[in-house]
Amino acid sequence: LASDPSSLQDFCVADAKNSVLVNGLVCKDPKLAEANDFFSSGLQLAGNTSNAVGSSVTPVNVAQIAGLNTLGISIARIDYAPWGINPPHTHPRASEILTVLEGSLKVGFVTSNPENRLITKVLEKGDVFVFPVGLVHFQQNVGYGNAVAIAALSSQNPGVITIAHAVFGSKPDISADILAKAFQVEKNTIYNFQSKF
Amino acid sequence: LASDPSSLQDFCVADAKNSVLVNGLVCKDPKLAEANDFFSSGLQLAGNTSNAVGSSVTPVNVAQIAGLNTLGISIARIDYAPWGINPPHTHPRASEILTVLEGSLKVGFVTSNPENRLITKVLEKGDVFVFPVGLVHFQQNVGYGNAVAIAALSSQNPGVITIAHAVFGSKPDISADILAKAFQVEKNTIYNFQSKF
Amino acid sequence: LASDPSSLQDFCVADAKNSVLVNGLVCKDPKLAEANDFFSSGLQLAGNTSNAVGSSVTPVNVAQIAGLNTLGISIARIDYAPWGINPPHTHPRASEILTVLEGSLKVGFVTSNPENRLITKVLEKGDVFVFPVGLVHFQQNVGYGNAVAIAALSSQNPGVITIAHAVFGSKPDISADILAKAFQVEKNTIYNFQSKF
Amino acid sequence: LASDPSSLQDFCVADAKNSVLVNGLVCKDPKLAEANDFFSSGLQLAGNTSNAVGSSVTPVNVAQIAGLNTLGISIARIDYAPWGINPPHTHPRASEILTVLEGSLKVGFVTSNPENRLITKVLEKGDVFVFPVGLVHFQQNVGYGNAVAIAALSSQNPGVITIAHAVFGSKPDISADILAKAFQVEKNTIYNFQSKF
Amino acid sequence: LASDPSSLQDFCVADAKNSVLVNGLVCKDPKLAEANDFFSSGLQLAGNTSNAVGSSVTPVNVAQIAGLNTLGISIARIDYAPWGINPPHTHPRASEILTVLEGSLKVGFVTSNPENRLITKVLEKGDVFVFPVGLVHFQQNVGYGNAVAIAALSSQNPGVITIAHAVFGSKPDISADILAKAFQVEKNTIYNFQSKF
Amino acid sequence: LASDPSSLQDFCVADAKNSVLVNGLVCKDPKLAEANDFFSSGLQLAGNTSNAVGSSVTPVNVAQIAGLNTLGISIARIDYAPWGINPPHTHPRASEILTVLEGSLKVGFVTSNPENRLITKVLEKGDVFVFPVGLVHFQQNVGYGNAVAIAALSSQNPGVITIAHAVFGSKPDISADILAKAFQVEKNTIYNFQSKF
Question: Could B3 and F5 be called an inter-chain contact, meaning their C-beta atoms sit closer than 8 Å?
Fold first, then answer.
């Protein structure tokens, strides 16, 4: 899927200070565009994986590089502590291609209804895997040390919907009776889940 | 979001018998196209809501009307028993606009990370609500009788990812250790969820 | 046809008060988006069909629901008095899928040059029919009572070109000598047509 | 409007002999592509304007140049006898930019409902005018001699819907009672119109 | 390739005075649109070919006709002195279809790596040729007199990258050591090339 | 720029054995899709930079991963020997975002006519830079050791046009008189350039 409109000029560097909001972002004067508008640094640094899931995502999208505006692409660095996971999530506006830089990752995605087929693979350093747009997918560090991957995504602003947070951690909460019926459990179980997020 | 490519001819009626598979579907000879290729019937009939969630979706997309191929739109009828729900799900390839034909529905959608804001509303007969592409959304019958809605979707084949089924009911299962960490519960709780789907 | 660009954020609720005009509409601050931005009411009410054609179209597009901006879809309710018609028209920016809620409708569309083939069908309650983007189409109530339909369209702003009004009722008029030659009739016949619109 | 999907390879020369039909056309082996696939001749020749409207359109689209497949553009030469017209029509899949090579043309287009505003201009040799996608437009030779124009269109297969032919000349006819109500005239007047096409 | 987003209204005439910059251009109030917004003149006039390459391009794109904004098309007139060339260049955002109005042109384009196949043809008056989006292409006047062509392009703002100017005439210069290695020549040869542009 | 059409199903794994050619590639039966269709390996291995330019590009696009078909993204590993360059080139169908994994790179791109502005930057490990679609760009290893980068591109098949090869190494050659005039040098200089490719 190509979720971004086409360019109508050489580039349209996002003007973050402009109060006018459009689909994507308005541009700064192209004469004022400079190399730093197309640049970011720091992706050599490991993210902090000391959290509940043992992983960290460092995005490099239009929020970090203004020059990505209208260009239909972005990347992210993902760090995984041993047994850390990038929990099941979707990107509503992008497909993803993931490259393992270090370590071993078990990855997978699930097809839509009615099959809900899980397609899964263990990746080693130098392996590449694809997650089609909008499908639920995840990664798990299955090696002995840290793991690192680079993900490229087909949108300047792919969006992330972490299933656990969207379903059990929304603000305000989705009614427990809805979730109890959806997951076919007691409401108390839902309350327990909701207390975590 | 407009998730379908543009038409390059008046229409491209899907040729379901052709073994060649493309993005979308190949077309039958336009000279052989007839009114029935653009037609389906039966949407006046209530779906069977005698199931765990108390709802039923009757789709009318390119699988039901071959003439929808390349046209970027489809619809569905949704029936809800009292307190029935259309459980949290996403459409990876379409936005949705829902019209209540009968009854009262509580509807909502959740924005992507990091806000995960729940935007919710109770709808009555004649009310219309929009679910943006790719976001988790749901409906619940909150009236005393049955409820009926028509949903229109911005793709010939929007796809449905029911969260409960994709996460806890995939074939094969997503590893319980991944889900236990993602939802921050014991593995036994995950096994219990997985046994339901 | 998918006539709208793709979304570059979860949603872009139209800011009708902003004086800056773009392809589509500029967005309000997403933090200020609320449920009512994705909502409209009143579609249970019949339109007033006491007019020359005996029909009424109640649109629900981006002008009624600001949240439809960038989402590529809209709907309309159409009411038909007995023998009322929705006269021949085109949507320059959308395909349409029509569902009959009540009554009987004769519907049809005409393919482009050189065939100009009329594809037509009589629909009953619960029947669904498709009108491909840009083609001339119409509906006629052929039952004994009122008829009601819901039309879904593949654009936030599909546009309507009613042939009679565009050709014989433009402001100012198209020169009668052009129309006389186009329709191969006397100029006086054209003047007569023009006097009606 | 850009009504064609993007290219996914250098070119995709249409293979007219292939029985598989898709949105657009399937490609021949790119190794067999040759200069003639991107070429046509004869546009220096005037079309035959000895017909009821006094004009002739010589198209150069994907039907004439197989190499236009997937490229989103086509052209046409239009010849006009004195007082000849290119009658009111729409292109369902393309905007048009017209250049006058010889003579004087009155041109115009009509906006969609509810304004139906006619925007019109007299053009001389070397003048250029734009007709937005899907809108009803026309040209009339208002000079003393023949006129010639080149039209460029934003689709490999823009389609043409001549209003008179689509409305009064479809095969089979649109019911006279529908057209009588649409144009607010007697059925006999409609029969008269239909007899011309 | 169709490099422009779709229209979301009848037209979006560019408002050149507005300081807000977007992908494409913001629109003026449609009520203020007038015929001159869709019009330009002067294309009957030959360009001045008294320059190093013996050719002249007169563009008619969104910079000349504000009404082309969002419509995905533009044109240009090209004049060639005897033996004049339109030097090798690419359009990053458009395919091109060229019609010879006067004279004889040798034209060609080169496919991408690894084939780099040159597809070439000599065109006479009335001949038409296609240059697929993004590929290097050129024309040369091979007749005895002047030559004239009309080029139509599938973007409101196709862009032009003249290879000689982009590679040897950028401001500032690309380092001579990079170009020397790229073209496998001495740095002095590169300095010589750079001195020309 | 998003140069690929949108997905109309969860995925459309390319069927390389099918003789039917389309824009992109036809799909294999989705029931037969398996993890290996979304996978490739070997990107941890350095490419062979013992060549005239001292660099090597290892692509991972739809030719290597069939599952990338219709998904609008691909990547490549680029290796650079000391002072090696990735010579000036364009991608006709993709924007690029480049991440330095090892070493120091001088990178740059040149805007289109008439400015031909060079925007350039020296990158270190962990730095990221963007090259907008269709623009001429390059990289040069300016460190003491080897350099490695990962490039992500916004198309399943971005295409590469190496300027030196397209202009001086096409098969057959572009006429020397055309190139001599384009680069404003003697034909003998052109013959010399052509002998290198």
Answer: no
